[in-house]
């Protein structure tokens, strides 16, 4: 059985791709649970035939509730990920959706990282790069930090900060 977070994300994607309309949280086809009314950051990831097709999220919550965060990030993942063209209606049947709900990040050292357990944020001034935990092919902390730094345009040879966070992943 699919988790309500994933159902909400998929409904948002289908509404924007098929009907060109934003799904309002009050019209959501899922019952909003108490945790959906909390304020949390999340990422929505799309895969097609096992390959990444879109992934957008927030490090800090931007919306009043997790439900609204999921709705917005689902739209962004399907239409605004700069690495991919917008999802087309014919692709929807082949797309799988996952939602990662982020815990608050905490300052850490490289030795505190485990890429299977923690995501990482690399920060340098206003530049920030993030990589979610437990990604295929990312098995060591220095590789995880390198990828996050590259995504954020962070120079690891200059002073920077590391933060780690856990996620709850829903499929």
Q: Which fold name is given in CATH as the topology of the largest domain?
A: Glycoprotein, Type 4 Pilin
Number of E-type strands: 8
Beta percentage is: 25-35%
Low-confidence stretches: none
Based on CA atoms alone, the radius of gyration comes out at: 16 Å
The CATH architecture name of the largest domain reads 2-Layer Sandwich
Largest sheet: 4 strands, antiparallel
CATH class of the largest domain: Alpha Beta
Tell me what you see in this structure.
The chain is α+β, with helices and mostly antiparallel strands and 171 residues long. It folds into two domains: 4-102, Hypothetical protein ph0010, domain 1 (Glycoprotein, Type 4 Pilin, 2-Layer Sandwich), CATH 3.30.700.20; 106-166, Dna Ligase, domain 1 (2-Layer Sandwich). It contains three helices and eight strands; from the N terminus they run αββαββββαββ. The chain has helices at 4-18, 66-79, 141-152, and strands at residues 42-48, 51-57, 95-102, 106-108, 119-124, 127-131, 161-165, 167-170. The strands form two sheets. It has a four-stranded antiparallel beta sheet, with helices on one face. β1 (42-48) and β2 form a beta hairpin. α1 crosses α2. It is globular and about 45 Å long. The mean pLDDT is 97.
């Amino acid at each position: 059985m699919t988790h309500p977070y994933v159902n909400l994300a998929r409904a948002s994607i289908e509404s924007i791709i098929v009907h060109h309309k934003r799904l309002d949280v009050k019209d959501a086809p899922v019952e909003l649970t108490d945790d959906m009314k909390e304020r949390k950051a999340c990422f929505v990831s799309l895969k097609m035939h096992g390959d990444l097709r879109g992934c957008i999220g927030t490090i800090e919550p931007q919306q009043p509730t997790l439900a609204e965060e999921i709705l917005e990030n689902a739209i962004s993942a399907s239409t605004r990920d700069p690495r991919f063209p917008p999802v087309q209606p014919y692709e929807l049947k082949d797309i799988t959706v996952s939602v990662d709900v982020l815990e608050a990040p905490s300052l850490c050292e490289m030795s505190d990282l485990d890429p299977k357990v923690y995501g990482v944020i690399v920060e340098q001034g206003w530049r920030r790069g993030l990589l979610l935990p437990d990604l295929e092919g990312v098995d060591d902390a220095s590789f995880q930090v390198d990828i996050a730094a590259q995504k954020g345009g962070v120079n690891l040879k200059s002073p920077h900060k590391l933060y780690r966070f856990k996620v709850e992943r829903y499929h």
